[in-house]
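To: structure desk
From: M.T.
Subject: fold request, one chain
Message: Could you run this one when you get a chance? Sequence is below, nothing fancy, just the single chain.
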Amino acid sequence: MPPPTVVAQSRTIPVSVEYAYDKTLPMPMPTLFRHWYGPLPPIKQIRDEPPSWDTVGQTRTIVLAGTGTLREQLTRVDPPHGYDYRITGITGPLAPLVGVIEGAWRFEPAGAVTKVTWQWTITPRTRAAQLAMPPFTFVWRGYARSALAELEKLLVA
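Reply: Done. Structure tokens follow.
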């Protein structure tokens, strides 16, 4: 397997760490990820989601607009500091590019506000796919900026 690529984006949001964490983890994904960003699609729906999304080992299927699905599993839950997940079973347009994604959300105090960081550690599917990582991560950063701006609107509303 080719080496992974790490990409992250942060934003400060004027809410407490506890509030940011408590509202972000269970937030319906189609509410937060509802816009296209270049070739990266919004999330259309979630399948097989447990009644509460908050326990290590839980899984769900993310259905993207257009085509494509992702299998997500919670791998770490550390309230109110953050949570981690693993994405496998990637189908659709991302399948030739991405083998596995290790994702993380972090919530840190930054004075009177909270610094929210979203990170992906992306393992390319092949060595050839590794060549596409620089443009892919460039687009992902824009997608993440957009999602974090949307998160701020939802948390501050």
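Reply (cont.): The first helix runs from residue 17 to 24. Let me know if you need anything else for the meeting.
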